[in-house]
Amino acid sequence: LAKTTQPISMDSYEGQEVNITCSHNNIATNDYITWYQQFPSQGPRFIIQGYKTKVTNEVASLFIPADRKSSTLSLPRVSLSDTAVYYCLVGSGSARQLTFGSGTQLTVLP
Amino acid sequence: ETGVTQTPRHLVMGMTNKKSLKCEQHLGHNAMYWYKQSAKKPLELMFVYSLEERVENNSVPSRFSPECPNSSHLFLHLHTLQPEDSALYLCASSQDSQGGNIQYFGAGTRLSVL
C-alpha cells in the first residue's frame, strides 16, 4: 500500500500561491496521484490527478518529480473560499487500498 | 452538483430505531462506496460495490447493512446503532472500483444517534 504523508496544516494569505507537498515513497508503477478538497460537512471534491511530470487544470497544478516519490499541489492566488482540507491519494489497484489520511488543513487569511 | 445525491441530509435516531440512508448516482458509474467520517477524523471506507456486488467490507459492525439493488442506487440500512456511530456518512461513485479512478462524492448524511 502506498502510504502518503502530508503536513497537518498550512496558513496562507489571500492572493498568494500555495504549495502542498505529499510524500509517497513506496508508490507503485501503476499508481495514480489524486488530490481532493473537502469543506466542512461536505463530501470531498476531486481537484486534479496525475501520473508523472506536470498536470494543470482550471483550478490547480500538480507537479510530480521523475522518481514520483512525492507530489506538490499548487493553488494559484488563493482566496478565503479555498480554506478546506486537502487530501492526497495514491493508488491503482483495489479501492480498498485508498486511504484519505488526515489531509492538510489549509487556512487562507485575509 | 456532483451527480451523486444522498438523502436525507440530516437524521436523528434513537438506538432502537431502524432507518435507511439512500444514495443515487446519475453518472453511469459501476462502483459505489460508503464512507464514515467522525468528527476530526479521516474518512473510513466502509463498503465498496462493483457492478452491484459487494467487493469490500472493512470490518464494519453488522448493525450497518448495505444494499445495492442496481448500479445507480446504494442504501445503508441502520439498526440498533450506538452513540459512537454519530458521524457524517458519505456515498461516492466511480467508473469502476480500481484505485486510480476518480470518486465523486455526495453531500453526505449527518447522523446523530441519541
Textual characterization of the structure:
- Chain A is mainly beta and 110 residues long.
- Chain A has strands spanning 9-13, 18-23, 32-38, 45-50, 53-56, 61-64, 70-75, 84-91, 104-109.
- In chain A, strand 3 and strand 4 (45-50) form a beta hairpin.
- Chain A starts with 8 loop residues before the first strand and ends with a strand.
- Chain B is mostly beta strands and 114 residues long.
- Chain B is built from no helices and eleven strands.
- Chain B is globular and about 35 Å long.
- Chains A and B meet through strand 3 and strand 4 of A and strand 9 and strand 10 of B.
Output the keywords.
heterodimer; A: 110 residues; mainly beta; 5-stranded mixed beta sheet; 4-stranded antiparallel beta sheet; 9 strands; B: 114 residues; 7-stranded mixed beta sheet; 11 strands; 0% helix
Give me the secondary-structure topology.
The complex is a heterodimer of chains A (110) and B (114).
Chain A: E1 9-13, E2 18-23, E3 32-38, E4 45-50, E5 53-56, E6 61-64, E7 70-75, E8 84-91, E9 104-109
Parallel strand pairs in A: 1-9
Antiparallel strand pairs in A: 2-7, 3-4, 3-8, 5-6, 6-7, 8-9
Chain B: E1 4-7, E2 10-13, E3 18-25, E4 31-37, E5 44-50, E6 53-57, E7 64-70, E8 73-79, E9 87-94, E10 104-105, E11 109-113
Parallel strand pairs in B: 2-11
Antiparallel strand pairs in B: 1-3, 3-8, 4-5, 4-9, 5-6, 7-8, 9-10, 9-11
